[in-house]
């Protein structure tokens, strides 16, 4: 089997780059073929992976954060290659759903030698994601945190915390029409999360019961909250205790559509776009994933 490592040089304040010697060391006394590619721009990971998997089957490793994982995934969908993650970004939220605790001591070696299992994918319009997509205040928090994280002395967690405080005072509620399979719901949206994994936003446990192999979204819908309740919301999200808030409702479904008269901010595994009409679908067993 051939191994392809896609490295985001900016991930984790260049932590991903520092892993290259460790990766090379794992193959020093083997005859297995391995390739290391370092991305140069946004979207480059998708281009690189698409080029390689069109020529053959690889064990493809995303070395970076959740954004790197998303780009790598979108380059290999519908191929026979398999996907692994060597976390080295600031958030690394998806990997929390796999380990449910501490990472293995030697994450590189254990991932290279890991077993392959099918897990679900999700699709939003023409783009795939593997973890969580969301609309509302949390997407605004992610968007604002990206600007804050540009300061070299601010960690990912601090950036998210500062962004949350700023966004609470700036947030504008929007009316959205939500259709989950055949069920229609109208809400004045604070937060809507469509989850394949459990964690996002630097460790917030938005979907405590999400299962990567059940073929369903776990959907967290939060109606309009007062500013005071918003300050209560984020600590509870971190612990996965937001079900204690009256305005929070959970659903499950395979296909979800969202319609709004105004553009809403959409977070797709940490990448931000603006849309009015959005369709989400689960792709059951859509990717062969490497489990350390």
TrEMBL record:
InterPro entries: ATP-NAD_kinase_N, Diacylglycerol/lipid_kinase, Diacylglycerol_kinase_cat_dom, Lipid_Phosphate_FormReg, NAD/diacylglycerol_kinase_sf, YegS/DAGK_C. Its cofactor is Mg(2+). The keyword Magnesium applies. One of its GO terms (biological process) is phospholipid biosynthetic process. It comes from the Bacteria. PANTHER family: LIPID KINASE YEGS, SPHINGOSINE KINASE. This is Diacylglycerol kinase family lipid kinase. It comes from Clostridium aciditolerans.
């Amino acid at each position: 089997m051939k191994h392809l490592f896609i490295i985001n040089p900016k991930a984790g304040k260049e932590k991903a780059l520092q892993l290259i010697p460790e990766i090379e060391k794992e193959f020093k006394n083997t005859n297995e073929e391995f390739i290391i590619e370092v991305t140069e721009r946004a979207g480059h990971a998708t281009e690189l992976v698409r080029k390689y998997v069109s020529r053959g089957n690889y064990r493809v490793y995303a070395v970076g954060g959740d954004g790197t994982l998303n780009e790598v995934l979108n380059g290999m969908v519908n191929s026979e290659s398999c996907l692994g993650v060597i976390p080295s970004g600031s958030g690394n939220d998806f990997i929390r759903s796999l380990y449910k605790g501490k990472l293995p001591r030697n994450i590189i070696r254990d991932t290279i030698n890991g077993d392959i299992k099918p897990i679900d994918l999700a699709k939003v319009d023409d783009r795939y994601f593997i973890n969580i997509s969301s609309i509302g205040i949390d997407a605004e928090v992610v968007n604002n945190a990206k600007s804050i994280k540009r300061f070299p002395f601010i960690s990912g967690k601090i950036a998210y915390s500062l962004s949350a405080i700023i966004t609470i005072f700036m947030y504008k509620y929007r009316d959205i029409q939500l259709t989950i399979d055949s069920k229609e719901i109208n809400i004045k949206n604070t937060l809507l999360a469509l989850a394949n994994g459990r964690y996002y936003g630097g460790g917030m446990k938005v979907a405590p019961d999400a299962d990567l192999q059940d073929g369903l979204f776990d959907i967290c819908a939060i109606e309009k909250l007062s500013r005071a309740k918003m300050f209560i919301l984020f600590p509870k999200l971190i612990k996965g205790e937001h079900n204690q808030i009256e305005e929070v409702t959970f659903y499950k479904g395979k296909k979800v559509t969202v319609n709004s008269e105004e553009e809403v901010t959409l977070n797709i595994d940490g990448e931000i776009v603006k849309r009015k009409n959005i369709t989400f679908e689960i792709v059951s067993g859509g990717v062969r994933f490497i489990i350390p």
